[in-house]
Amino acid sequence: MQKEKPVSFSGIQPSGNLTIGNYLGAIRNFPAYSENYKCFYCVVDLHALTVRQVPAELRRRTYETLALYIACGLDPEKNTLFVQSHVPAHSELAWILDCFTMFGELSRMTQFKEKSAKHADNINAGLFTYPSLMAADILLYQTDVVPVGDDQKQHVELCRDVAQRFNNLYPDTFTIPEPIISQSGARIKSLAEPTRKMDKSDPNPNAVVYLLDDRDTIIRKFKRAVTDSETSVRYAPGKDGINNLMTIYSCFTGKDFAAIEAEFAGRGYSDFKLAVGEVTADALAPVQAEFRRLMADKTYIEDLMRKGAREAAICAARTLTKVKKKLGLVLI
Ligand code: TYM
Questions:
Q1: Does any domain span residue 65?
Q2: What is the domain extent for residue 72?
Q3: Which of 79, 105, 167, 216 has the fewest Cβ atoms within 10 angstroms?
Q4: Measured in angstroms, how far is the CA atom of residue 199 from the centroid of ligand 1?
Q5: Is the CB of residue 251 below 6 angstroms from any atom belonging to ligand 1?
């Protein structure tokens, strides 16, 4: 299949309110691809079903996630923005890829181990085969690059293995995708337990800064962030809380760690925490204003969902038809 441009694909689950981890590790990096790549960014609502969802909340967050893509700088004219369940080819290819993905491979996935420990009463088959659906998302679009946070690298690597296995049996079917992990912000940590990643489904709201938190809430959460008992702002092993805050400050200001250490030399943690809160709130204010403007017009969002689904379905159908032919499924 001849491509005009290389393809970028990524997805976000509408399984909770988006956090600055999702923003710094993923969304904020997406717009850079708009000029030189054909870009697909998906709201992966089917993946969210692997954990029990309240239907009205899932619906609301699906609209919100699409609106946030745009509010964070993705122009819907230059990017295909769509909802996973609107393109049935994702589920179809996922089943096919399930048949090319090994039990052992899926058992080794860190996210499966973590989520099954957390939801011990609901270790469903979807949670286990989650990476096959994710591989289907990526492979349907003949994707070259997948910009994601560090925690998704393992899933993209499994996707590569499955694609290679399929290509060995049926040559030239899939493009082998490359995970792109940003240099900074790829693993933003919880403010309450800074050894763990910041997670949108964390039950403790003070551990997480949401993209839609108001200024006072953002500043309050950073003031309460867990840090060590030292006082000097410096990046060093074991200082997980301060290292995380320095990473966030660096992402929002573009300053490196040496410059941050110099800026806060002789000042305590409380000054620094306030500054991190302020730069975060300043950076998010325009995103929030644009988000509110977009959410006031649901019809516009629905029109975009329809447009995105139409564009995505055309590309997805090409790959799915090719896969079916290669496998010997009868096409009528
Ligand atoms: P999800 O919804 O958990 O997260 C969306 C994106 O945000 C990144 N991310 C983070 N980055 C830095 N620090 C953090 N604390 C942090 N938390 C989340 C994630 O790495 C991700 O890039 N399985 C995926 C969604 C998905 C997908 C795909 C991604 C489904 N199909 C195809 C890429 C391509 C997930 O659960 O992301």
A1: yes
A2: 7-181+298-327
A3: 216
A4: 10
A5: no
Distance 280 CA to ligand 1 centre (A): 20
Structural domain count of the chain? 2
**18: Cβ below 6 Å to ligand 1?**
no
Q: Does 43 contact ligand 1 (Cβ within 6 A)?
A: no
CA of 23 to the centre of ligand 1 (A): 10
CB of 113 closer than 8 Å to CB of 120: no
Q: Does residue 26 lie within any of the structural domains?
A: yes
Q: Number of H helices and number of E strands within the chain?
A: 13, 5
The answer to whether residue 274 sits within a structural domain is yes
- Residues, the chain: 332
187 Cβ closer than 6 Å to some ligand 1 atom: yes
pLDDT at position 229 over 60: yes
CA distance linking residue 263 with residue 99, whole number of Å: 55
Confidence grade of residue 119 (pLDDT, cut at 50, 70, 90): confident
- pTM comes to 0.97
Tens of pLDDT, residue by residue over 207-223, are 999 999 999 999 999 99
155 CA closest ligand 1 atom index: 23
Residue 256 pLDDT greater than 90, yes or no: yes
